[in-house]
Amino acid sequence: MTFSEETIQGLVKEHYGLNVTVKALNGYDELNFLLSNEKNEKYILKVSNESHPFPFLEAQINIIQHLKKSNISDCFQHFSINKQGEELTKIIRDSKTYYIRILNFLEGTFWVDVKEKTSELHHNLGSFLGSMDHALHDFSHPAMHRSYTWDISRASEAGDNLKHILNHEKRRIAGYFLLQFDTEVVPEIHRLRHAYIHNDANDYNILVQGNRISGLIDFGDMVYTALVNNLAIACTYAMLDEEDPLTVAASIVAGYHKAYALQEKELDLLYYLIAGRLCISVTQSAYNASLDSNNEHHFITEKPAWNLLYKLIEINPIKAQDVFRKACGFTGLINNDDYSDLLEVRKKKIGRNLSIGYKDKLKIVKGALQYLYDDKGRTFVDCVNNPSHVGHCHPVVVRKMQKQIATLNTNTRYLNDAITEYAEKLTATLPEKLSVCYFVNSGSEANDLAIRMSRHFTKQKDIIVLDHAYHGTSTVAMEMSPYKFDSKGGSGKMPWIHKAINPDLYRGPYKYGDTKAGEKYAADVQRIIEDLKKEDKAPAVFICETLLGVGGQIPLPENYLKTAYDYVRAAGGVCIADEVQVGFGRIGDHFWGFELQNVVPDIVVLGKPIGNGHPLAAVIVTEEIADAFNNGLEYFNTFGGNPVSMTTGLAVLDVIQEEEMQKHALEVGNHLMNGLKGLMAKYPIISDVRGHGLFIGAEMVKDRTTMEPAVPEIDIVVEKMKANGYLLSTDGPLHNVLKIKPPMTFSKQNADEMVRLLDIALSEL
C-alpha cells in the first residue's frame, strides 16, 4: 500500500478537520506517520490493510479503553475521534479497504535507547506489566482468539523455518531449544492461566522516563494465550545485550509478581518460554532473509537475539527456575545435598567397582550439545564425553529417535528398510572392500564378535594387541586389554594373548623426529609372529586402535599400521582396526583413523559415537570374511540392528555430514592444540601435546628430563577445571595425560576459554 505524506495530510483534514504537517515513520506491518498541529502537539497516525481486519482493530480500541480505567492509564495512547464520532476511519482505495486511526503521542525514551538501565527500572517494568495484566483479567474480545506466529505458545511451528538458518551451529542451538520447548512446555502450557495480552513489550514499544515506565505502544500483536507469555516477552527483550541476563529477568519477574502474583508452574517454564520467543525471532529473520527481504524491521533484533541464545544455553535451566522462584518468595529448587543418601543406595544396590568421577561428586540432570547441567544449577562444558559425538540431545537425532520409537521397535527377523539403508550409508564412508555389516549393542560386544570371526576365518587362536590397550568389558575383550588384565584385580595375560610395544613417540624407545619409528615399532609385531612360528602357531588377529585412547591419546607413527599389517597378513592373520573411540570424523583429517595410516583393515569395529550415546555398535568386514562366517551356525542378536538403533545411526551419520562436523573438528582441534602448545611453552609441566582433530592428549610431568609423571598435580588441575565449569579427565598408563575428546559441537570459544582456565590452574600449582 502506498500513502504519501500529502495524501495523509488531506485525509486528516477531510475526516478529522485537523491541519497538520506529516512525516512518514518506519513500521513493521502497518504504515506509520507522525502528525504535528499548529500548537506543536504530536500524534501518530496508523494505516492498516486487510491483514488487520476490522474486528481486530476494534479489539485494539476496546483493550485501550479498558486500560484507561486502570491506575496506569496515562501509559497508553488514546484515540482521536473522526467527524463521524468514530475511532476508526474506513478508506477505500483501488478497491481495497484500509483503516486509519490517530493516537496521541506519548513522551519518553524508547527502552532500546536507554543507556543505563537500573535494577529499579527492571523491577518497575515488571510491576507495570503485572499491573496491566491484572487490569485486563476481566477483559475479553473474540478477535484476539487467533492463530499468530508471534504467540510463544506456538513456538513449535518455528521449527518449519529452521532450514533457513544456514549456519550449522546456530541452527543446532535453535533446534535444541525448540526440542526443549516441545518437551518441557507443550505438555504443560494448556494447564497455565490464559489471558488477553499485549504480547509485544519489546525494546521499541516500551517508553521510559527516569526509572519509570511512561508508555507502552503498539497493540498489533495482542492475542489470547498463556498469561505468562506477556512476562516472557518483556524479559526476552530486556535481557538483550545484558552482561547478566538472568539477574535482569529476575528483577522483572519480582516486579511483576508484586503487582500480579505468579504461580510456580509459570515460573518453572519461563526459561523455556524466553528461549521459545528467541527461536521465533531468529527463525523469522532467517525466513525473511530467504525471501531477500530488505525491511530492516525483519532483522532489527537478529544479532542480539542470537547473542542471547548463546548465553541462554550456558545458563542451567534449573538455576533459572531457582532464581525465578526465589525472586517471587517461593522455595528454590537448589539445595546443598551432599548426596550421602544417594551414595548409600548406590553402594548397596549398584556394583561396587563402578567408579564415580571427581572428588566432589556431580549429579548431572540434563545435557545440551557440549554442555552438561547439574542439579545445583551449575553448567559444565563437556570435554570428555565422546560417545555424545554430535552433542547431548542433538535435536535432529532425538526427534528421529522419538518418532521411530513411537512407531516400531522389534528384533531383526522382519524386513525393515532402516537396517539396509543404514548399512549402505555406513559402508559408503569406508573402503570398497569393507562392505558387510553386523550390528550389535556396544563396542565390547563388537570387539568380541570381531575376534570370534577372525578366529573362525584363520582357524587360529592367538591375538596380538598393544601394551596398555583397552578393547572393552566382555570376557574376550578383557582378555585382550592389558589396561585391564595388568591392573589391580586383573586376571593377568592369557597364553594366547601377546603384547606388542606401545608405539609412543614421547615415552617409547623411538622418538619424535625418527623417520623410521613406525617401522621400528612394527618390528615388535614381527618378533611376536616369529616367536609363535617356533611353536607352530600363527596369529589369528592383530587388533589396534587407530589412535591409542587409554594408552595415552597417542597418534600412531607414520607407516606403523602399514608395516604391522603386512607382517600379520603374511603370517595368515586378520587385521582389525578398533575405531570405537576414534571414528566418525573426530580426527578431522579423515573420517576414519586408519586413513591416517593409508591402510585398509580386514575388519573395522565401531562403537561409542555411532549412536551418539545410544547403545549401538557395528562390525564391518570383507565379503570373504562374511562368507566364511556364514557356516551354518546362525548369528542372531536380539537388539542389534533394531529399527530404533538403525534410525539413530542414520540420524547421527546425516548430522555429521550435513553439519560438516569433520571439518569443524579439524579447525577447532587445530585451534585448541595451538592453544595447548602455547601453554606447553609457558609451563614445563606440560611436556607433550598430541592428537588429531578433537582427539587430543596433553602429557604432564614433574621433570621433562626424567619424565616423572605429574600425578597429584594433574588431578589438582582436573579438579580446578571442574570448579570453573570444564570437565576433563586423565588417561594413559601413568595416569598423567589430560584426555580431551569433547562432543563435536565443542566450539573455538569453548577452546579459548578452556586454555585460559588451564593457564590459571597451572599458574596456581
Number of strands: 27
> Mind telling me the CATH superfamily name of the largest domain?
Type I PLP-dependent aspartate aminotransferase-like (Major domain)
Shape: elongated
Low-pLDDT residue spans? none
Distance between the termini: 70 Å
How many domains is the backbone divided into? 4
Please state the second-level CATH architecture of the largest domain.
3-Layer(aba) Sandwich
Which CATH top level class of the largest domain fits? Alpha Beta
Cofactor: pyridoxal 5'-phosphate
Protein name: Hydroxylysine kinase /5-phosphonooxy-L-lysine phospho-lyase apoenzyme
Pfam families: Aminotran_3 (PF00202), APH (PF01636)
Domain Aminoglycoside phosphotransferase: 26-260
What does this protein look like?
The protein has 22 helices and 27 strands. The protein starts with a helix and ends with a helix. Strand 23 (686-692) and strand 24 form a beta hairpin. It has 765 residues and is of the alpha+beta class. The model has no long low-confidence stretch (mean pLDDT 95). It has 4 domains: 5-104, Phosphorylase Kinase, domain 1; 109-328, Aminoglycoside phosphotransferase (APH), C-terminal lobe (Aminoglycoside 3'-phosphotransferase, Chain: A, domain 2, Alpha-Beta Complex), CATH 3.90.1200; 340-390 and 661-764, Aspartate Aminotransferase, domain 1 (Alpha-Beta Complex), CATH 3.90.1150; 417-649, Type I PLP-dependent aspartate aminotransferase-like (Major domain) (Aspartate Aminotransferase, domain 2), CATH 3.40.640. The protein is elongated. The strands form 7 sheets. A 7-stranded mixed sheet has the order 14-22-21-20-17-15-16, with helices on both faces. Pfam families: Aminotran_3, APH. Residues 26-260 form the Aminoglycoside phosphotransferase domain. It comes from Flavobacterium saccharophilum. Belongs to the class-III pyridoxal-phosphate-dependent aminotransferase family. Keywords: Kinase, Lyase, Pyridoxal phosphate, Transferase.
